């Protein structure tokens, strides 16, 4: 990067590596620690670098809502019935494939969010899946027995 090097002895200081006579430029960053065990707190990186930010409760709450909605939508896609019985097989298969790809992609996003090891993210992911299943997959809102096993997509295997 243009002759700039990092010195291990001075974290955050960038020094011109051309002749050693350059002035150090201090760059102040709050570096997030990568947790490898569950932890409580709002200072976490979830899905994207720097998101939800350091010491920002509002953005952390937004991140929790996003994770909840992703998990909820995965359950919706797991139980939706959009394809009509009389549909063209190729068109129905294409739609099924598209829905499957979206569902799996969202499920991986939830998994990656949980891999932040933040307990709040873990709990809202479980709550999102549970709420989605309650509304779309359980018998609570599907009173007829024939609707209990109908979905455009096969069940996700764990």
From TrEMBL:
The organism of origin for this protein: Cinchona calisaya
Any one annotated GO CC term: membrane
Name recorded for this polypeptide: Copper transport protein
Segments crossing the lipid bilayer: 57-78
Subcellular location: Membrane
Assigned protein family: Belongs to the copper transporter (Ctr) (TC 1.A.56) family. SLC31A subfamily.
UniProt membrane topology term: Multi-pass membrane protein
PANTHER family reported for this sequence: COPPER TRANSPORTER 2-RELATED, SOLUTE CARRIER FAMILY 31 COPPER TRANSPORTERS
GO terms of molecular function: copper ion transmembrane transporter activity
Primary localization class, coarse: membrane
Keywords carried by this UniProt record: Copper, Copper transport, Ion transport, Membrane, Transmembrane, Transmembrane helix, Transport
């Amino acid at each position: 990067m243009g002759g700039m090097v990092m010195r291990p002895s001075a974290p955050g200081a960038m020094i011109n590596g051309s002749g050693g006579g350059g002035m150090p430029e201090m760059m102040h960053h709050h570096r997030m620690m990568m947790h490898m065990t569950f932890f409580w707190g709002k200072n976490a990186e979830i899905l994207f670098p720097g998101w939800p930010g350091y010491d920002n409760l509002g953005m952390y709450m937004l991140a929790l809502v996003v994770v909840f909605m992703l998990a909820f939508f995965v359950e919706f896609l797991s139980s939706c019935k959009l394809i009509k019985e009389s549909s063209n097989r190729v068109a129905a298969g294409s739609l099924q494939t598209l829905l499957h790809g979206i569902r799996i992609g969202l499920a991986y996003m939830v998994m990656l969010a949980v891999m932040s090891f933040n307990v709040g993210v873990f709990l809202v992911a479980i709550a999102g899946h549970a709420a989605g299943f309650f509304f779309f997959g359980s018998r609570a809102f599907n009173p007829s027995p024939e609707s209990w096993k109908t979905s455009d997509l096969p069940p996700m295997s764990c």
